[in-house]
Amino acid sequence: MAKSDLIGGTLWESYSRKVNDRMLNPRHLGEITAEEAAARGARLVVADWGAEVCGDAIRAFWAVDAATGRILDARFKTFGCGTAIASSDMMCEMIIGTTVDEAMKITNLDVERALRDDEDTAAIPPQKMHCSVMAYDVIRKAASEYKGIDMDSLEAEEIVCPCARVSLRTVRDVIRINDLHTVEEITRFTKAGAFCKSCIRPGGHEARRHYLVDILRDVRAEMDREAAGRAPTGAAGSGPAAARPFPELGLVQKLRALERVLDEKVRPNLLRDGGNLEVVDVKDNGGITEVRISYSGACRGCPSATVGTLSVIEEVLTTELDPRIRVVPV
In angstroms, rounded to a whole number, what is the distance separating the alpha carbons of residues 67 and 282? Predict the structure, then answer.
């Protein structure tokens, strides 16, 4: 029977060649025994993680150097789909040679990117992205076993979308900074909800503590209350923050003003050429406002992006907002 008969030709073709290869020929499938670990002067760590909804499960085996905390070898066993196999196999390859702390910084997005055939084409179809999350979760589980601590204590921020590794704080901030009104806008800005979609609203394949629809509702309500409290009371000059000079605005208001000007004056031209930009950070440096931007799409590899385009962006922002703005590419 052909692969296309098993899962449908279109879906199969949406996996990268690397994923297909590791589905069928995993390099790190198997287990590490206590005797094998001891022979290398290593501590054996065994961790189990499973997704109750789809029934997939992974058991990870790590041989960790007792003196340095470096992972000397990693293997896995799984009851799962091809995505889980390929993701687990790549996860093992990526963590071998790292310390446990370094391994904890690897996310499912890093694993997915490593499985791509080319930089701009996803390795896994969106509806299967949640399977790759198990590779990240089993790293955290193994690290918690190694450190002797609770797994939840390893998560620095509360994650709303496990597929895209988007935190609650990020979703709340992006709604405020960009004055978002729809879940679709949140997805466009953050990628939250772009994959398995179970974080959008109740009823998906996994129950969540937070859903995008609820976060959006709550943050919009907070913003409405704050706007009501700032409503102008009469005299000119005592109006909303947008009427104040740019240097006097708070960070959120500055970002909003920058995004407004970029959307109106800059992004349309970049998008026509297949590029775009993102405001990464805004910093005050001795009276100079540094606007740190990151290019994407065609702009990322364009030689003029760091000279010609940059000067145009800076000229627009200094003319529209404040002459003491400097644009810095990162």
Answer: 42
